[in-house]
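re: that chain from earlier
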Amino acid sequence: MIALTKRVYLLLIPTILVVLTDEWLKFTGLHRLPQEGSLVKPGLITFAIHKNWGIAFDIPFKLELVVLISVLIGLWLIRVAYRHWNDRPGITFAAIMIMIGALGNLFDRVRYGFTVDYIILFGHSAINLSDIVIVLGVLLLLLSSQRKKFDKASEMR
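^ sequence. v structure.
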C-alpha cells in the first residue's frame, strides 16, 4: 500500500510541471500569439489568445467572487484530500490535481484580471493546459469515488 501511495503522489510532480509550463505558455502567448478575434479562418486546433474575463464558458463573474468561490472549493478539496490520504490515494491525488490546475488559472486572474486561454478548439472553445489538468482531475475523482462502490458491491456477492 505504501509503495502504491508513493507512486501516486510522485505523479504530482509532472502535474505541477504541466501547470508551470502552462504559465510560461500563457506569458509567452500574451506577447507572441494573435488575439482570437483576429483569426481569419480558425481550424480544428488553433493557437491564439482568448481572454476569459468570466468563469468556465466565459460566464461573466466578478473577480472577487471568483476568488472567493475558488478559495472555498480549494478548502473543500483540501478536506477531501486529507480525509482520504491513507485509505484512498487516488481520491487524494485527484483532489490535489484539481487544486494545482485551479491555482494556475487563479494566478492568471490575480496577475492579469482574466484567465489566459490559448488553445482554440473548433474555432469556438478556448482552453489552456490548466483547464485540462482540472478536467482530468475531476474525471479521476469521479472514477476513484466509484471504484470503492464497485469494490464493496463485489465483496457482498
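Helices lie at 2-10, 12-32, 63-83, 89-112, 129-156.
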